[in-house]
Design a protein that fits this description.
This protein has helices at residues 7-14, 19-25, 30-36, 39-50, 145-148, and strands spanning 56-64, 70-76, 87-91, 103-108, 111-115, 125-129, 134-138, 151-160, 165-174, 184-189, 195-197, 206-207, 214-216, 219-225, 237-243, 248-253, 268-273, 276-283, 291-297, 306-313, 319-325, 331-335, 339-343, 350-356, 367-373, 389-391, 396-397, 405-407. It is mainly β. This is F-box domain-containing protein.
Length: 409
């Protein structure tokens, strides 16, 4: 059929189709396979997908323990008009479920970066495109427990639109004296497949351990603070940023009045609402009931534009912590019974979303959320795969550590 359709018209038609449909379309003919798996077509399809904001879904990860610990990943409709949270696709998680489980580092342009390195020293990381069932195993980083001893670290993941490449950044504070030893910084790129050291670009700040990134417009953000010297030293909280394009670190000030609150430093987190950077402040001060405040930065990078937009009462212990924001402005929260709920800060209405995870004190392992946009990224990578089924219960396949690129179809 393509012999009678101009190539430009065929590309225009095909790039409008969903990724899963295009994967099946590679079976039509050799010429279609060659076209759809070409880097230029994959890039063209991605650009068209990005241009339509309706192509994004909410990525949900949650853990269950009955009868054994399992990880579940799914895509959810998050329509601000109909207020639906129905399941769009249940994702077959292709990696072994270990203790502690994997966590989402970030999601960008159809790839999900996951790591089990956020609470231990296993150093297992993958880039995963669940809709076309492809993944790339990221090699072990250079700074590891075996060679450097104990450390604390945080991870970031994003896309460099200039070089058309995906990157993972790793900020590592080695040893116990983070106040005096500058961090080691490593950067992995998908095109090269290796880590390189960029510690000379690091800022003299301490990124809070296991700080979950907030990714906006090619920039990763983490909660951090300045070094503290001596007993009772004074420091300030801030946000450290990393631009994936120029590989440069930056800093953003906290809202005035909470930048220096030592007792709250470990209870700060970042989320994204649309294209807005949000700071969640967990308050358990004497003299007032426990609550959390959500600050929104109305003008990116301008410290004076922080506005405290939402206040959620945490007294009584029903809510554990905010997980993320929905498109309609409601807040996703984990409860003490392990349920995921949607909370309307204006009407105070609570909606149970039909998802129950593990019961833990701060919902650290129970839930992760991010945005997901389908793409063909990784479709042009190698097809080395392993179909060793580890358990029907897990509904997953083991990915070998030695394999660089896995085809999980």
């Amino acid at each position: 059929m393509s012999d009678y359709i101009p190539r430009e018209l065929l590309i225009d038609i095909l790039t409008r189709l969903p990724a899963e449909t295009l994967v099946r379309s590679t079976l039509v003919s050799k010429s279609w396979y060659s076209l759809i798996t070409s880097p230029s077509f994959i890039s063209h399809h991605l650009n068209r997908t990005i241009s339509n904001p309706n192509n994004t879904h909410l990525l949900l990860r949650y853990c269950t323990e009955d009868p054994i610990e399992q990880e579940h990943y799914s895509l959810r409709f998050d329509d601000p008009i109909t207020n639906t949270f129905n399941e769009y696709a249940k994702l077959n998680f292709p990696f072994t479920c270990i203790d502690p489980p994997f966590g989402i580092v970030g999601s960008c342009n159809g790839l999900i970066c996951i790591s089990d390195d956020q609470a231990c020293y296993n150093h297992e990381m993958f880039l995963w495109n669940p809709l076309i069932r492809k993944s790339v195993s990221i090699p072990y980083p250079n700074v590891r427990f075996r060679s450097h001893g104990s450390f604390m670290h945080s991870l970031g993941f994003g896309f460099d639109s200039v070089s058309n490449d995906f990157k993972v950044v790793r900020i590592v504070h080695i040893g116990l004296d983070c106040n005096r030893v500058p961090p080691e910084v490593e950067l992995y790129t998908l095109k090269t497949g290796i880590w390189r050291n960029i510690s000379d670009k690091a800022l003299p700040y301490i990124v809070v351990e296991r700080s979950r990134q907030a990714y906006i417009n090619g920039v990763s953000h983490w909660v951090a603070h300045t070094p503290r010297f001596g007993h009772g030293g004074i420091f300030r909280n801030l946000i450290v940023s990393f631009d994936m394009n120029d590989e440069v670190f930056g800093e953003i000030s906290f809202p005035e009045g909470i930048a220096g609150e030592d007792k709250l430093m470990q209870k700060m987190s970042l989320v994204v609402f649309g294209e807005t950077l949000c700071l969640i402040q967990h308050c358990k001060s004497y003299g007032e009931p426990p609550h959390c405040s959500i600050w929104m930065m109305k003008q990116y990078g301008v410290a004076d534009s922080w506005v405290r937009q939402i206040r959620i009462d945490l007294s009584g212990g029903f809510f554990r912590k905010p997980i993320g924001m929905r498109k309609n402005g409601e807040v996703l929260l984990g409860t003490r019974e392990g349920y995921l709920v949607s909370y309307d800060p204006e009407s105070k209405r609570i909606i149970y979303l039909g998802v129950q995870g593990t019961i833990d004190s701060d919902c650290w392992y129970s839930f992760d959320v991010d945005t997901y946009m389908e793409s063909l990224v990784l479709l042009d990578k190698g097809a080395d795969f392993c179909d060793e089924v580890i358990s029907d219960r897990f509904c997953a396949k083991r990915v070998k550590r030695t394999d660089r690129t896995q085809d999980l179809i």
